[in-house]
Structure prediction request, 577 residues.
Amino acid sequence: WEGVQCNSTTQHVIELDLVGLVESNQSPWVFNVTMLQPFRRLMSLDLSLNNIGGLVEKDGSARLSTLKNLQSFTLDYNYFESAHISLGALISLKKLSLRGCRLNESTFTIQENWIKLKALDLSGNEFRSLNFQELKNPWDVKELHLSENRFDNSILQELAHMTQLQVLDLSWNDSINNSNIQDFLNLTELQILDLTGNNFYGSIQGFCKLKNILELRLLGNQFTGQIPLCLSNCSSLQLLDLAGNHFEGQFSLSFFANFTNLRYLDLSWNQLVVQTEDSLWHPSFQLQHLGLGGCNLNKPDGSVPEFLRLQHNLSEIDLSDNHLVGSFPTWLITNNPHLGVLKLQNNSFTGYLQLPSYTWQSLVILDISANKFRGKLPNNIGYVFPQLIILTVAKNHFEGSVPNSIAHMSQLLTLDLSNNNFSGELPTQLLSNCTNLGILKLNDNHLQGEIVPEHMNLTSLNWLDVSNNSYGGTIKDALLRSSSLEYLDMSKNKVTGKLPNFIGNFQLLGDISLSSNDLQGHIPIEICELRLSHLDLSDNNFTGPIPPCSNFFSLQYLHLHRNNLIGPITNVLSRCS
Prediction:
């Protein structure tokens, strides 16, 4: 049976997977655990995603003695918001997971009977504090996940006694703002430490004492100073993420030459000046992720790191914002058969875009925006990269027509061709086949044709910017197929006709820019159905009165100048806050 596992010798049921058995819109309900009484040898139970709001025995008590033999209990993403959950009777528990259950210290407490507990996951709740001293053997806990709560500095003192911890996740608790990392230094058995998205500050030199550390995530804090040389003591590191802090100074990547196990390295978005060519060195590692965005890389030459020619397992490369020069490094793709993300934006690459000569199924994100590429976008780009979900080539010098093959990227979510010199009409199949497309940016080119062609079928579109082109024609009802539009900019084109009444059907639309066209007639009263923050209809030929909209509570920008409108404007502004 699916979701049921039995002991191969005794045939007793020992594992039950009952994930997601109820509809997601069902109101929270109380689960009677007595129904599990026949499964006396049950050791593992997963009740995640069932909208459970409480656990009781058949007599209404919350003792849960029926489950006293459970060793692993998973209740992720249920709703214990208003009910106290008591699990003290589960004396055999080794692993407990209550991720995303809306718990806090008044609805859940640590139980002293959990003498065998090894792993606890309370991520995604609303805890501000927890008393781990209730545990008889707090030092026996090996794995603790407390991410996405509201913990403050006091949690650090609670953890200091859990000296056998091997895995600690405290990420995304932004009320933690401590410069004293001494509390972690007692946790000498730590192998995985995640402090992402907090407000720790000061030096990280103390972390060098964690000799067993394999993964160290410090992304998005306020750490300062230089990357300490003593990190060489942690040569077993497999993952090091220091991105988004305030580290500074010169740093040579040859520092990691002998980190044989290193698979993930991210130094992006600090104030570092990173060199890779300052000495002859050969990496002993094979990276899967490399983040060097905004690292002032290889100044003043701006060369792409040569050591990357020896890397063959990369799935993600970020070399953005580094003023790198040269031609498009096609070899980064061909060297790495599993490459999924390549970010080269905001550099100074030049020349034509040279693609691999064969289909590359793994690449899903390609961003080469804000460089100096020129010429035509290769005609076969859609066949070479058919699995792309994000393609961004904005702010270059590409010219000519948009390749028909882009329509072959059927998974495309974002297409940004803005700020180039593309001309001609957009391929018919792109507008009819790419039904997953959510963001389409074509602004600041020389494109032409119908502003809304009849064949347009972008059913997932929420952002459309075709401004500053040479589009003409009228706004046809084919636009209604994009019912989820939130942003619409058709300004600085040659659009004619009326603003259609169906504009009021776009209930999510918050930003409309139609300025500098040749629209005429009355502004439709249906526009009052929208909750707009930005409305620009300037430089057209609209006539008649301004609609007396009374629900423009969120309106921040209103531009109606250079039209032929008449009547008072006070009605439209009377409810604007």
